[in-house]
Amino acid sequence: MTRVAIITGISSGMGRAAALYFKQQGFEVYGGARRVERLTDLREKGIHTQKLDVTDKFSVRQLVDRTVSEQGRIDVLINNAGYGEYGPLEEVPIENAKKQFDVNLFAVGQLTQLVLPVMRRQNSGRIINVSSIGANVYSPLGGWYHATKASLNMWSDVLDSEVKRFGIRSIIIQPGLTKSEWSKIAFENARKNLLDNSPYDELVDKVEKLFSKLGTGATSEDLAQVFYHAATDAHPKRRYYNSVVDHSMVMIARTMPNTYRVVLNKLMK
Ligand SMILES: NC(=O)c1ccc[n+]([C@@H]2O[C@H](COP(=O)([O-])OP(=O)(O)OC[C@H]3O[C@@H](n4cnc5c(N)ncnc54)[C@H](OP(=O)(O)O)[C@@H]3O)[C@@H](O)[C@H]2O)c1
After folding, report:
1. In terms of residue numbers, what domain contains 54?
2. Model's pTM, two decimal places?
């Protein structure tokens, strides 16, 4: 039987790499993004693409309806689309903070609600939610972003406790810094969200420097393989990490918040 996956945000980064990897592994892959011009080569490789804005309920319904009418089932949903609405909490307009929650959390809920009845009928399915080590680890300017990812972790755990009885699992992936367009977009937003003569101007340069100092050891292709494990492991874990370092950072931030803060302060110097 052909396995079927829906992946959001496949025009770039991890979503794109995952679409290609899952297709290579024999999945029928359905997905989309807003920048459709970036999807042509994926379509040529047999991936079913469409224009998708995850915050538009008609757009997500169209994706689910098309998948079900063409394949009759959905084995895996990867809620990957996301971005960082960076900026100082004093200055980020609340409309932008709401947009951040719309994309990174509420859109995940909307799409999942459409997919769950299909998975329940099958008595099987995986919902893979792409969170971040930033659900636990933080730095200045990421306030709203971290809040969405922390919320996503909790949301995913509650969902898992509700749907496991139907053979469905809800799983969190927590990537660390990874090569993609994510950082560029986050810091463009940080600058866009600054008021004129902002006292936080220097902080943006400092945090951007910190990110480039920390570097991006992982590639989007590495993360695509982690997504695949989460989607296909016989006994999936509730959390997946790409590296021991990512896992350790989460453990330190969760269990030793003061130590984490000392390390952050040192890194920011
Ligand atoms: N890269 C990192 O360091 C890192 C670390 C931890 C977690 N993450 C998370 O990993 C996920 C993937 O990010 P990435 O690193 O691959 O970043 P990316 O290269 O910027 O890709 C993000 C993808 O999300 C899509 N997207 C954004 N808003 C959308 C919307 N409203 N509707 C549909 N698609 C939308 C983008 O497509 P369009 O713009 O074309 O719509 C793009 O395909 C995100 O959830 C991110 O928060 C990233």
Report:
1. 4-268
2. 0.98
